[in-house]
Amino acid sequence: MPSSFRLLTHSRAGQPVGAVAIGGMAYDLAAVRPATPTVLGALEDWAAASADLRALAASPGGLAAFSGAPLDKLSYLPPVLYPNAIYCAGANYKDHMAEMARAFNLPPAPDPHETGTPPWCFIKTARNSLAGHGAVITLPAYSKTVDWELEVALVIGRTCKDVAIADAMTYVAGYSIANDLSARDFLRRPTVKANSGSPFEYDWVSHKSWDGSCPLGPWIVPKEDIADPNNLALKLWVNDTLMQDSSTSQIIFNDAELVSFLSQRLTLYPGDVIITGTPAGVGTPRGIFLKAGDTVRIEVEGVGTLVNRMA
User: Fold this and answer.
1) What spatial distance separates the first Cα and last Cα of the chain, rounded to whole Å?
2) Residue 154 placed within a domain
3) Of 149, 182, 121, whose CA–CA distance to 279 is shortest?
4) How confident is the model over 251-282, as pLDDT tens digits?
């Protein structure tokens, strides 16, 4: 595996600090690579920046010139401040599709590859929705059924438009972890009859884009450090109860397919985040939802751990 580093942003004296994590310590990007003092800046110069940071990670002696901070002492912010957009893949895990079909008494859905159906994607707000590792998330007062959704996040490292599936991953810088928190009782507008066929039935802003609805972090792992992104173990706990226990092997449209599809619709920019769908184990089929005081912990193999408390 290539020499390892992680990109992150943390808060110092109330100000965001772009940093690179190497060997359990965080070093200011402004010190180790002054040309790109922020994570977004490093992503905008990803080919050169990643090479420089990997070389630094491979030469521990070179770090002696810089002062670092222990990772467990940081106040984490979202790794990227701020992406142009957060793109979200819905209904993109086979086991999640199966559990929701059972919960709603529906027949199993066919593989969209067989029916020629493209990925189903939506957008979350970026600045409003994002929260960092360790952040306290205020549940929206209007919702009584906020659900968790463990998701692997892709972070774009090159401007990307109309790319083929075969080339798509060359535009990805790395991976992070997201929790696509969802206010289930506001998927539909309460004044519109459910399943009425009305084009005005759904309320995606209330459902998906309230403040803090997308915890992201704790950092970005370069894609070269993930040997097999199609077979990563995925786990989510609410307090001490394991709720989601799956694998990226359950994904329907893989990372390259999602990047290619989105690039056919719009331009992807460095720092853009694509969250790739959630596996089985969400609260809705069991009638269990988040409440103040709950702690959500997510682990993605090879990427790390994202923890947030609800308030």
Assistant:
1) 40
2) yes
3) 149
4) 999 999 999 999 999 999 999 999 999 999 99
